[in-house]
Amino acid sequence: MATAQLSGGAMLVLGIIIAIVIVLIPAFIYIYAWIAAILLIIGGLVSIMTGG
Q1: What is the mean pLDDT of residues 17-29?
Q2: Phi/psi at 4 (nearest 5 deg)?
Q3: Span 19-37, average pLDDT
Q4: CA 3 – CA 52 distance, rounded (Å)
């Protein structure tokens, strides 16, 4: 199930990148962007931990 972990890792990295962009560029501080980043990070972590 390497694909599931790869997918989770990709979600996690994408969420972190979005969070960094939000922090670095104040114009992108929107609640929807934060929700998307948080959901991606949580989804990635859950996907990695459960292996699927």
Answers
A1: 74
A2: -65, -45
A3: 75
A4: 8
Contacts of 22 (CB under 8 A, 6+ apart): 28, 29, 30, 33, 34, 37
Distance CA 3, CA 19 (A): 24
Q: Which of 5-9, 13-17, 41-45 has the lowest mean pLDDT?
A: 5-9
Q: Give the DSSP per-residue string, the chain.
A: -HHHHHHHHHHHHHHHHHHHHHHH-GGG--HHHHHHHHHHHHHHHHHHHHT-
Gyration radius from the chain CA atoms: 12
pTM exceeds cut of 0.85: no
